[in-house]
């Protein structure tokens, strides 16, 4: 097994790690609602993909109704 001969300085290690960076996420504007979304994926805000509705996105009101119904049933 190869062995390291000399320990590197703190500065040397830190200089090397200055290149460890995260890429900014690629974002595109949704053609339906105009919000920023990740490419090649269904828009999480309107549920459209390639101009077609493929997923139902619950509105705040629907969410509230669902919660109320659930709470009523529990009593
Ligand atoms: Zn959208």
Characterize the structure shown.
- This protein has 75 residues and is of the alpha+beta class.
- The chain has a domain at 28-74.
- Helix content is 31%, strand content 11%.
- The strands form two sheets. The chain has a two-stranded antiparallel sheet with strand order 1-2. A two-stranded antiparallel sheet has the order 3-4.
- The longest helix is centred in the C-terminal third of the chain and has 15 residues, at 60-74.
- The N and C termini lie far apart (68 Å).
- The chain binds zinc ion.
- The site of zinc ion (ZN) has 8 residues, from loops.
- Zinc ion binds next to loops.
How many helical stretches?
2
Over all CA atoms, what is the radius of gyration? Answer: 25 Å
Bound molecules: zinc ion
Q: Compute the average pLDDT.
A: 91
The rough form would be described as: elongated
Order of helices and strands: HEEEEH
Trace the largest sheet across and list its strands: 1-2
Strand-residue proportion = 5-15%
Model regions low in confidence, pLDDT < 50 over at least 5 residues = none
Q: Considering DSSP H and I runs of 4 or more, what fraction of the residues is helical?
A: 25-40%
Distance between the termini: 68 Å
